[in-house]
Each structure stands twice: as structure tokens, then as C-alpha cells.
Amino acid sequence: MGYPQPPPPAAPRHRPLGRLASPLALLALMWLIRVLDSVLPGSFNGLAQHAWNPATLLGIFASPLLHSSWAHLIANTVPFLILGCLVAAQGTARFWYVTLVATVSAGLGAFVLALPGTVTVGASGLVFGYFGYLLASAVSAAGWAQRLLQGGVALLVAAVFGASMLTGLIPRADGISWQAHLCGAAGGVLAAWWIRHRRGPRRQGPADLDWSEHGARGRLG
């Protein structure tokens, strides 16, 4: 005689606010590093990448967490928080994927395109990566409602940060790492394209889904 089997446990539901923990944790780490950099001797910025120095190549993963000053960190905080949370709202795994692609693309871009010995620090490569991802994903979003939502958000961000973000993509001599900005944005677009084509043309719901500087020959991201 058989006995009725209990129903399988329901799959855990991801709470939208819980997804924001990832960008908040990453931002908190940036602030913690800046606090430690202010009270401890020396500087963590020595862990960043140095253009054309292969021994520092792994520093591309540390550079987004490092900032040259409090003003530099504060300038990056607001756009990172807004754009990072918009990406994270589409899913925690997606946030970390876009973050990884933007980190590598921005870091390699600064490593190859900046003058030899240039030290690039700052989260602006990530900021531009998130911006590029949001713009590209809005264009390729399935369904008019999602396109209007993501497109409206992208336009709002462009209206608020557009001038400074566009000038950040242009070569300049004021210590701003346009290389990290431009390549970070390209990485964001690439991440959006890869996600879109890997999943195919099916309809996707939300659940599927630097500012920088140069110092002693350094660049801010």
C-alpha cells in the first residue's frame, strides 16, 4: 500500500530588495578600503594595475575598489549605486557577470591604451560598464513594456549624468582614465549582447534578467 508523498519544497523566491545586497556590499568594500587607506601607513593603490607592466596585470581586479581620495570615491558612489542597483534588479548572477566583464574590459583597456607605468584606480570603469549594459539591454529587450521601462531609465540616467559621462569617453589630459571608461562601456555592451544571444529571443522578465583618476602618472577611474 502506497503512502502519499509530500509535495516537493517550493523553490525559494528571490526578493527584489535582496538583489541589491550585491552592489551595496561592493560599495561598502570600497568605502572600507578607503577608510583603511586613510588610517594605515602606505597605500593600497600600489595593488592596482600599472599599464604595460605584466607583473601587475592581476591588479585589474583590485583597481575598481581603490580610489585616490575621498572626493574621488564620493564622486563614484552615486552613479555606481544607481546604475549598479539597476543591473542587480535583473538578478544577482547577472550583476556579477556584468561586473566581471566590465572589470576585465576596463582594466585591459587601461592596461594597453594608457602610457606605460600609468596607475589606474577607481570604480568609473564599472560605472560605464553598467551604463553600456543598460543601454544595450534596453535596445534588445523583449516586449514594448520592458523596452520602455529600460529605455526610460537609460534616458533618465543619460539626462542626469550624460554630459560628464560623454566627456569621460573622450581622450583628455586631466588625469581622467578615458581608456577605462570607453572599454568599460564596451564591456557592458558586450555583456548585454552575450546574455541576449545565449538566452535566445524568448521573452525575459526582470527575474531573468569612475568616475576615475591618474596620479603620479596615475589615472582615475
From TrEMBL:
Residues 201-221 are annotated as: Disordered. It comes from Brevibacterium rongguiense. The keyword Hydrolase applies. InterPro entries: Peptidase_S54_rhomboid_dom (IPR022764), Rhomboid-like_sf (IPR035952). GO terms for molecular function: serine-type endopeptidase activity. Coiled coil: none annotated. It is a multi-pass membrane protein. The chain crosses the membrane at residues 70-88, 95-115, 127-145, 152-170, 176-195. Pfam families: Rhomboid. Keywords: Hydrolase, Membrane, Protease, Transmembrane, Transmembrane helix. This is Rhomboid family intramembrane serine protease. Residues 211-221 have a biased composition (Basic and acidic residues). Residues 57-196 form the Peptidase S54 rhomboid domain. SUPFAM superfamilies: Rhomboid-like. It is found in: Membrane.
